[in-house]
Amino acid sequence: TMTSAKQRTKANAGDKSSPPPPDDVAKRSPKAAKGVSSPAGPGLLGRALTATFYLALVAAAAGLAGFYLQRVRDELSQTSRRQEAAAARTEELAKTVEAVLQQVDTMRLTVGSFESSLKDGQSELDKTNRAVRKGEAETRRIEEVLHKLQNEILKDLSDGIRDVKEARERDFSSLEKTVEERLTELTKSINDNVVAFTEVQGETQSEVQTLREKVQAVEGLSALKHELLAVSTAVADLRASSEGKVEVAESLKAQVSSLEERLQTRTREAESTVQEMEEVKAAVQVTTSSLRESLSATEAFLQSLSGQVKTLEDGLQEATATLRALEQNLQAKTASAAQGREDWELRLKTVEESAESLVASAAEQSEKLESVLSKYDSHESALATLSRDLQTLRPSGSGAEDTDVLSAVRKITEAQEAFSGDIGVLKNSLDELQNAVAAQDRAQKELSSLDEGQKQQAVEHGQRLATLEEAMKGQTVADSVGDLQASVSQAKNDLQRLRTAVDSLVAYSVKIETNEKDIGSLKTLMDETKASVEALSIKLELVQEKV
Questions:
Q1: At what angle do helices 249-393 and 399-473 cross, to 10 degrees?
Q2: Between helices 22-170 and 399-473, what is the axis angle to 10°?
Q3: What pLDDT shows up at residue 488?
Q4: CB burial of residue 224 (10 Å; 0-12, 13-18, 19+)
Q5: Taking burial as the number of CB atoms within 10 A of a residue's CB, which of 208, 282, 328, 370 is the most buried?
Q6: What pLDDT is attached to residue 26?
Q7: Do 280 and 218 contact (CB within 8 A), yes or no?
Q8: What pLDDT does 13 receive?
Q9: Are 139 and 281 in contact (CB under 8 A)?
Q10: Long-range contacts: 324-327, Cβ < 8 Å, 24+?
Q11: Rounded to 5 degrees, what angle do the CA atoms 518, 523, 528 make?
């Protein structure tokens, strides 16, 4: 009984442990294969498409970054070439401005020499005016002395004649004494007057000589001298006759009668002399008035000329200040452009380095993506194998196999998490790459704005130079020089008239000719300056066209 039970137990165990029939295995394996392959096929295709999309995206980003980097390099090279050309143009403009400043300094020196010569001419005119006034004063003094002498002589002679007539009516003896006394008094008075006249004549002889040299047109003074000499001779004769003491009354009467005749003659001569003196005085006054008018006209011309010279000097100073300010502005703009160029070169180097680092990081990320995809493929294949093993081992249900399956599932989960982390890192890298591309776009925009700013600065410089040219043209330099030439010709005519009256103005005429030469040189210099400004404007227009 026990033996039959053991046999039955072995048979049951053999039945249980015996393999299934082939038909059952064949029927079961397609089901298992279907169970495994049906969920794995669509997942692998989606993941492969995703990986391919990421690879294409990374490749497109790398290509776009390289394209933008090459474009930025080309634009930076063009910008550097434009900056070098602008720096060369700025240096050329600075040289031209320096040449214009040198011409302005030369013009200022010429104007200074012209003003000094005008001051010398003014001092010469003042000296001539003082000499003419002094001559007028001396002439008036001589007229007063002669008039006083004539009045005294006439008064003494009239008193003597009156006394002689009164004494003739009285007594011959008393008449003789009276005539003798009167003649003595008359002789004394004449002697005193002659002494006073001699003193006055000695004092004023040199002044009259100087006045005669300065006023040669007044020839009536020579006739006056002859008349005065005749009067002096008559007075000397009268003195000699009085010293001889008339012996006879008849001779005294004859002398008195002859004296009366002489007095009448001298009176007529004195009247004619007075008339001549009045004519001479009128001529001197006319000459003096004409000289004063000429001097006043010359002074007014000199004042107007000095005002015009001052106006021109102020205009030159304003032009010089404007040119200096423009030069300083150009230097400041050049320095700022050089500094900005250095800054942009540094930023360009930084951008290039960042672009190179981004390209390297993109290559590294592509390598990482390939490694991740390979890991993903290996994980997918491992997962598929594990799924097949799991489906195969699921009917057995042993504990050890379940533990192995759980550990494999855990490893697969960890691999998926690591893969998800790699995907996140890849996304972050792509974001950084996009930010770098955006930064390159901003840098490109800033470079274009810098180029536009430099163009705007060049245009502003051109406008300032054009404004300066219009200001220098607006000064009407040619009109001012024409007015100066007309005024100088008028002054030359006036000075020629003054030269005929006063010989001392000959030297001033030489100075006037020198001033005319200075004005001619000033005109030439102004023409050269105008030509330089026109050439500068032409160069500026060429620079603007090139810019």
A1: 170
A2: 20
A3: 47
A4: middle
A5: 208
A6: 42
A7: yes
A8: 44
A9: yes
A10: 324/101, 326/97, 326/461, 326/464, 326/465, 326/468, 327/94, 327/97, 327/98, 327/101
A11: 125
CA dist 212 and 135 (Å) reads: 9
Q: 367-400 b/e with 16+ CB inside 10 Å = b?
A: ebbeebbeebeebbeebbebbbebeeeeeeeeee
- Look up tokens 């900056």; give the residue: 83
Classify 136 in phi/psi space as left (phi over 0), alpha (psi -120 to 50) or beta: alpha
Is 14 a residue whose pLDDT tops 50? no
- Here the tokens at position 428 are 């972050």
Kindly report the CA angle at 509 between 503 and 511, in degrees rounded to 5?
130
Nearest to 62 by CA among 378, 538, 432: 432
DSSP-based helix, strand, coil % in the chain, nearest 5: 95, 0, 5
Token look-up 């040449």 returns 99
Token pair 């089901």 in the structure block, residue: 31
- State the amino acid at position 362 in one-letter form: A
Which tokens hold the place of 164? 């002689």
* Tens of pLDDT, residues 172-217: 566 566 666 766 776 676 667 667 666 755 665 666 566 666 555 4
Tell which residue, 270, 240, 245, 215, has the closest CA to residue 501.
215
Q: At what angle do helices 506-546 and 477-501 cross, to 10 degrees?
A: 170
Tokens of residue 135, six digits: 């001559």
Mean pLDDT over 370-395 rounds to 64
* Count of C-beta atoms within a 10 Å radius of residue 107: 21
pLDDT band at 257 (very low <50, low <70, confident <90, very high): low
Is residue 59 within 8 Å of residue 366, measured between CB atoms? yes
Which residues are CB-neighbours of 348 under 8 A, at least 6 positions away? 72, 76, 443
The continuous run of DSSP H or E covering 412 comes out as helix 399-473
Rounded Cα–Cα distance for residues 291 and 286 (Å):
8
Cα separations in angstroms, 458 against 80, 243, 324, 431, 472? 16, 109, 18, 41, 21
**216 three-state secondary structure:** coil
